[in-house]
């Protein structure tokens, strides 16, 4: 009998009203951006994880996650919880007069690629009228906390928080069921401002040393760690003027080297890398093409790769996988996005099956895990999100 197609998500799932309220009830510490622990909040998270795992299972998801419920989100729409959670788990950060959103624009030049201010990115400026219109549907919601800056040595301090994530997920799993937790990549974490390290590269590798402890705690527990690194592709849009492909590949390779440093000696089969172009619902006309970034990303020593393949800006790029041929490692499992966070339209199960089949034809059934483009939590309404996951599960069953 043919083995069923495995399914998963890209991490974030919609929070319930009760969980959002529990998050909002947490008091801020004196530093202005970390939340004080709360027994009521911890109990609410544990109960919510048990529920969200059961709902994934019911929808047909076979590799389940905790919905990122241990990553605080205080509003129903919040595109940044995958990142802002890290501010709670790492020391060396503090609030300053500037943050990720406020620096002055920075110009790059050939051979000298630098990130400009977040709000100076090329997609934002090309569609300034649309981005300025609150009714355009492009807004990214409300961040859980302000963005700090690196002002001293980075170190992991989230041992209790990651232990709670592990405990909650393991308690919800059935015997023989595999689960995954998400954690931020060194390259994405290092996009906070830096007032301590002598160079950007030193800052990135400091994060690599720190995040390794979080990754190792997850894999030591026998769970898959999904390392979220939208910066690999998304940074391209945050460079002005547009850099050459070669310059951008060199810029990105440092981030892959830092990632490999962070995951050294971890079980490869328990490490999944998530690549995306940022999950906001903008035009994305300035995204780098997959064929330009993938040769660099494939140098990551990971067992599986999660990537966007369903949204209308990147769906056509499934052909890149066959074009690359032998450059794709024989043991790499693909977790393509089959349903998208970028539209409220629920994909038909037959379309889901067709999209999955494309990748099965390239690498085989045993190397495809059908997923979501990006996190659905904080991006689409919870009723729509669960309908998409049900369609993903049904479509996976329809693959021939």
Description:
The protein has helices spanning 17-24, 39-59, 81-84, 122-126, 128-132, 159-172, 186-189, 200-220, 231-234, 245-263, 290-297, 319-324, 349-363, 382-398, and strands at residues 6-7, 64-65, 90-94, 149-156, 179-184, 193-194, 224-228, 271-275, 304-307, 333-339, 369-372. The chain is an alpha/beta fold and 400 residues long. Strand 9, helix 12 (319-324) and strand 10 form a beta-alpha-beta unit.
Helix content percent band:
25-40%
> Whole-Å distance between the termini?
12 Å
The string of secondary-structure elements, in order, is: EHHEHEHHEHEHEHEHHEHEHEHEH
Give the neighbour order of strands across the main sheet: 1-11-10-9-8-7-5-2
Mass-distribution shape: globular
Mean model confidence by pLDDT:
95
Q: Summarize the biggest pleated sheet.
A: 8 strands, parallel
How many β-strand runs? 11
Structural class: alpha/beta
What count of helical segments does DSSP give? 14
Which parts are unreliable, with pLDDT below 50 for 5 consecutive residues or more? none
Strand content: 5-15%
């Amino acid at each position: 009998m043919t083995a069923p197609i495995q399914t998963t998500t890209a991490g974030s799932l919609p929070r319930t009203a009760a969980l959002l309220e529990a998050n909002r009830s947490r008091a801020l510490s004196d530093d202005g951006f970390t939340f004080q622990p709360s027994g009521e909040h911890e109990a609410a998270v544990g109960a919510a994880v048990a529920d969200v795992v059961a709902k994934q299972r019911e929808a047909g998801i076979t590799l389940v996650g905790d919905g990122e419920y241990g990553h605080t989100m205080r509003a129903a729409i919040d595109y940044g919880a995958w990142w802002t959670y890290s501010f709670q788990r790492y020391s060396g950060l503090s609030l300053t007069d500037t943050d990720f959103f406020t620096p002055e624009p920075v110009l790059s030049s050939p051979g000298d690629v630098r990130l400009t201010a977040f709000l100076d990115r090329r997609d934002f400026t090309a569609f300034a009228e649309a981005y300025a219109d609150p009714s355009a549907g492009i807004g990214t919601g409300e961040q859980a906390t302000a963005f700090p800056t690196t002002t001293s040595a980075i170190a992991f301090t989230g041992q209790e928080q990651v232990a709670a994530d592990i405990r909650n997920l393991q308690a919800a799993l059935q015997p023989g069921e595999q689960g995954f937790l998400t954690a931020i990549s060194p390259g994405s974490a290092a996009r906070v401002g830096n007032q301590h390290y002598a160079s950007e590269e030193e800052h990135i590798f400091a994060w690599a040393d720190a995040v390794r402890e979080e990754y190792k705690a997850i894999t030591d527990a026998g769970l898959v760690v999904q390392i979220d690194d939208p910066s690999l592709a998304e940074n391209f849009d945050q460079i002005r003027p547009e850099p050459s492909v070669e310059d951008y590949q060199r810029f990105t390779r440092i981030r892959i080297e830092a990632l490999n440093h962070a995951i050294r000696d971890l079980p490869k089969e328990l490490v999944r890398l998530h690549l995306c172009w940022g999950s906001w619902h903008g035009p994305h006309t300035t995204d780098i093409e997959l064929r330009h970034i993938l040769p660099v990303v494939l140098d990551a020593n990971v067992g599986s790769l999660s990537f966007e393949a369903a949204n209308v800006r990147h769906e056509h790029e499934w052909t890149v996988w066959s074009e690359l041929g032998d450059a794709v490692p024989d043991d790499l499992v693909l977790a393509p996005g089959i349903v998208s966070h970028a539209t409220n339209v629920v994909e038909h199960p037959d379309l889901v099956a067709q999209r999955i089949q494309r990748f099965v034809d390239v690498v085989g059934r045993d190397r495809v895990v059908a997923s979501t483009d990006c996190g659905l939590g904080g991006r689409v309404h919870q009723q729509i999100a669960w309908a998409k996951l049900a369609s993903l599960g049904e479509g996976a069953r329809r693959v021939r």
